[in-house]
Amino acid sequence: MQQDRTRELELAVAAVRQAAQVTQAVQRRLVTADTLIKKDRSPVTVADFASQAVVCHAIKQVLPNDAIVGEEDAHALRQADNAAVRDAVVEQVRAVVGQASPEQVLSWVDCGGAAPDPQGRFWTLDPIDGTKGFLRGEQYAIALALIEQGRVVLGVLGCPNLPGTGGSRGVVMAAVRGTGTQALPLVGRGLAGAQKVRVSSIDAPDQARFCESVESSHSDQGQSARVAGLLGITAEPVRMDSQAKYAAVARGEASIYLRLPTRPDYRECIWDHAAGAIVVEEAGGRVTDVAGRPLEFSHGKRLEQNQGVIATNARIHDAVLQTVQAVLQPST
């Protein structure tokens, strides 16, 4: 019997919408001082921290016992030389949730520090997926998913810069296991205005259009080009950052998303794919790794049993998978 997840879905949609308010405000006035550099040299903005604080606050208000596995923590914000960034984070959070002390805001960021329980229930959050796209003023996503016993059961993607319904800007893609995927306005109340979305209906690989990362370091684009050539695909790829690519596949704007390994030992983070994968699957698509295995979310913070990602409209998945394996064979 299908479990009713309306309450959890409404909570997730509301939290992502609130986070989008923060990220849009920061993006409008982005300055260099709003950026920190993590150990891996990737940029972290005020919006990352504020978005995570807002989402964690929203979840903990309604479901205080639910664990959250987020990408960020507040360690850097607690350092004295980052006081200006910390103050900016607090300001952005207050603009959405109301009065809060700096310590409260930092504690909400740190709520995302839970360890994944492979046999339990937890949320996983990427407060800004596609930070470099965000910094360029282009595509990014707020990605929130609910995982139970290693299985993604609900996912919400907030994509503020994707085209929305009726000519608006921004869209929320929401999926619950077994009930389909729907597109909602980025600004709205509850689930009003939801529209079902489906993947493309093409069944010939040469008619497909790729969707891949802007950043070449995220996926082997040379290998992707070889795959496209072997499949007879002539359309130019759609290039965008973040899990917005999953949204594009889910609503039929592209039929293939490849994230091919850039090195044999790399494993993807769960928050980079959980929400996007269920959004595509519930829209009628299929998501596997490059070996054809389903993505497994029961091995900690990374997809330890998977390598790379292939997302398609399902009809052409086997052909794409076979071609990817042929291209990767010499290096795997």
What does this structure look like?
This protein has 332 residues and is of the alpha+beta class. 33% of the residues lie in helices and 22% in strands. The chain is built from nine helices and 14 strands. The protein has helices spanning 6-28, 46-62, 83-97, 102-110, 131-135, 221-231, 244-250, 274-282, 317-328, and strands at residues 35-37, 43-45, 67-70, 121-129, 141-148, 151-163, 169-176, 180-185, 195-196, 210-212, 238-239, 256-259, 286-288, 309-312. The strands form three sheets. A seven-stranded mixed β-sheet has the order 3-4-5-6-7-8-9, with helices on both faces. It has a five-stranded mixed β-sheet with strand order 11-10-12-14-13, sandwiched between helices. A two-stranded antiparallel ribbon has the order 1-2. The chain is globular and about 55 Å long. The termini are far apart.
Key words describing this protein structure:
332 residues; alpha+beta; seven-stranded mixed β-sheet; five-stranded mixed β-sheet; 33% helix
Give the ordered list of helices and strands.
Answer: HEEHEHHEHEEEEEEHEHEHEEH
Terminal Cα span: 41 Å
- How many DSSP helices? 9
Give the helix proportion (percent range): 25-40%
The total count of strands amounts to 14
| Quaternary structure of the protein | single chain
Largest sheet: 7 strands, mixed
Mean pLDDT: 93
Percent range for β-strand residues: 15-25%
Q: Taking strands numbered 1, 2, ... along the chain, how are they ordered across the largest sheet?
A: 3-4-5-6-7-8-9
Enumerate the spans where pLDDT stays under 50 for 5 or more consecutive residues: none
Based on Cα principal axes, name the global outline.
Answer: globular
Helix-strand makeup class: alpha+beta
Radius of gyration: 19 Å
